[in-house]
Design a protein that fits this description.
Elements lengths: L5 E4 L2 E4 L11 H15 L12 H8 L10 H12 L21 H13 L10 H18 L6 E5 L2 H19 L4 H4 L8 E5 L4 H9 L7 E3 L9 H9 L6 E6 L11 H10 L3 E5 L24 E5 L11 E5 L2 H8 L29 H35 L4 E3 L7 E6 L3 H14 L5 E5 L2 E7 L7 H18 L2
Parallel strand pairs: 4-5, 4-6, 6-7, 7-8
Antiparallel strand pairs: 1-2, 3-9, 8-9, 10-11, 11-13, 12-13
Length: 482
């Protein structure tokens, strides 16, 4: 082919052998930035819930796949247009569903760069720079959460895989102490591993146990009226055991109430019975960043492992979970993998696949690095405190209204609400609020009763948003109540 020969890709010409004449394939990146900025700028005013249903979205997005491909800018423009009615404004200031945070600007921008750099975050040899970025981010996370500085840290997809990773390390350590090498021999013939968790443990703990071959029949420990594990019940359960290697799963931030298990007592009991203590702190672990709230975590520093999410209260884009294990050797042995084409490396050389289940993965710790640099210690503490203040404001407004009951102690960012002490009315109010679009929140069930569940974790929420949302909930309750 001559140096001035050209090829055409999706209708755009480029010179193959010499200087590019009109290569505009990457104009779509500018288009994406413009469209993303327009979406983010509109979060304050757009309805919070989706405006299109399943049928409409399928009609807009399901199209025949072409043989020749399409212009990249056309793809990006039409994608943004067609998905827009089905987007939920979860990054906005009045989204209070499912403990979903927004994303601070530095983290969004860093996430774009991660995609543009397209590095495998699995190890130093594949991406030296981003491996070091994640190493630094891990150091900051340890410091902010008050866990041992020597802990292993793995960046995973979310708290499902963070729980999995931590419990894999736990499985390794307690079976090792029982004389069994689970990595070499598997579970067939191994001592039985006993797992105890509170009655309201998150479903991801059970799923992690199932994936690890431990079964989903976790021994349930009774809880109090806020969903906190009862330390006396845990002591009785451990005392009545058969001496099997044991893992105890506690919670920092019960998923409905936001309550914290009594870690001082639980940690002492676990030490007495040589049980591994794991803490599922998907959002609640970030309370450690706030001098005002970190007392809720007293004793949590004595756990053996901790799981949390970055895409909740830290407000980085999906997906980002963080698995932390106090014994880095147990963490690494449970996770690390190698192959003939992977160079040997020293323990202090940053290889992401030493600490997470994935061999190839996105360098998701970069968004953590960027968010923490933007926020700083004081900014992160302020984010946590503001969200708690907004939750309490909404709770006060609702509790003052006849027929509306706040059924939990608002110790953090979670508010549970019941209307007319009636399941059907509560569900109706939730649906009306979702449909009105001023704010968005979800229904749940707590202690066998339907509740409205309000989770405040977004960095953009202001007192005005909290008041506006409370007004919308009260108006929906009055209308629904006749």
């Amino acid at each position: 082919m001559d140096s001035d020969d050209t090829s055409t890709i999706s209708g755009r010409s480029l010179q193959v052998g010499g200087t590019r004449a009109s290569d505009r394939r990457y104009d779509c990146l500018d288009d994406a930035a413009r469209l993303a900025r327009r979406y983010i700028d509109g979060l304050q005013d757009r309805p919070v819930g989706a405006q299109a249903g399943l049928g409409e979205l399928r009609a807009a997005l399901a199209r025949p796949l072409t043989d020749e491909g399409e212009d990249p800018s056309v793809v990006v423009e039409s994608l943004a247009r067609d998905v827009d009615p089905g987007l939920v404004a979860s990054g906005g200031p009045r989204y209070f569903g499912f403990v979903i945070g927004g994303a601070v600007p530095a983290a969004v921008a860093a996430d774009w760069l991660v995609s543009a750099w397209d590095q495998n975050g699995g190890g130093f040899v594949a991406s030296p720079a981003l491996s070091v970025v994640e190493e630094v981010a891990a150091t900051w996370v340890r410091e902010l959460l008050g866990v041992p500085a020597s802990s292993g840290v793995g960046f995973v997809t979310g708290c499902q895989m963070a729980n999995f990773t931590c419990l894999a390390a736990a499985r390794h350590a307690i079976l090792r102490d029982a004389g069994w090498d689970v990595e070499a021999h598997g579970l067939h013939g191994a001592p039985r591993v006993r797992v105890l968790a509170g009655e309201y443990a998150h479903v991801t703990v059970g799923v992690a146990c199932r994936l690890l071959g431990l079964g989903q029949l976790v021994d349930v420990v009774p809880v109090d009226d806020q969903g906190r594990m009862r330390a006396d019940a845990l002591r009785d359960a451990l005392a009545g055991g058969t001496g099997d290697p044991t893992i105890v799963c506690a919670q920092a931030g019960e998923i409905n109430t936001g309550a914290f298990d009594p870690f001082v007592d639980i940690a002492r009991i676990c030490r007495e019975h040589r049980a591994w203590l794991h803490i599922d702190g998907a959002f609640g672990l970030w309370a450690a960043a706030s001098p005002r709230s970190r007392g809720l975590l007293a004793g949590a520093e004595h756990a053996d492992s901790w799981a949390t999410d970055g895409h909740k209260w830290l407000n980085v884009p999906y997906d980002c979970g963080i698995a932390i294990v106090a014994d880095p050797r147990a963490h690494r042995v449970a996770m690390t993998s190698t192959s003939a084409y992977v160079p040997a490396h020293d323990d202090d050389e940053p290889y992401g696949f030493d600490w997470s289940p994935e061999f190839s993965r996105r360098a998701r710790g970069v968004t953590v690095y960027a968010a923490l640099r933007q926020l700083g210690r004081h900014g992160l503490a302020d984010l946590v405190d503001r969200c708690c203040d907004h939750a309490r404001l909404i709770a006060r407004r609702l509790a003052a209204e006849p027929g509306i009951d706040v059924v939990n102690d608002v110790v953090l960012n979670q508010v549970l609400v019941r209307f007319g002490d009636d399941d059907a009315l509560t569900s109706t109010v939730v649906q009306r609020v979702q449909r009105d679009g001023i704010c968005w929140l979800a229904g749940s069930t707590f202690r066998g009763r339907s509740v409205m569940r309000i989770s405040v974790v977004g960095w953009q929420t202001t007192p005005a948003d909290a008041h506006r949302s409370a007004d919308a909930i009260i108006a929906a309750a009055r209308t629904a109540g006749g």
